[in-house]
Design brief:
The protein is an all-alpha fold and 59 residues long. The protein is 53% helix and 0% strand. The longest helix is centred in the N-terminal third of the chain and has 15 residues, at 4-18.
């Protein structure tokens, strides 16, 4: 049989591990950053023209 101290320590450890578990699970499932478009037509229009590596002169 476990001592009262060990039982108490185990319960505390378990309580700390379970604290905020629902929130942690929700963050893991859904992420914390909202979804946003990266390549929009506006962003592509404002982007500088790509230079091909063949045209870049090497020194």
């Amino acid at each position: 049989m476990a001592s009262n101290t060990k039982v108490t320590e185990y319960r505390r450890k378990l309580r700390h591990a379970k604290a905020g578990r629902k929130a942690k699970n929700a963050r893991q499932a859904n992420g914390t950053t909202p979804v946003f478009p990266i390549h929009t037509p506006e962003a592509d229009a404002n982007a500088p023209a790509q230079v091909s590596p063949a045209k870049v002169q090497k020194d």
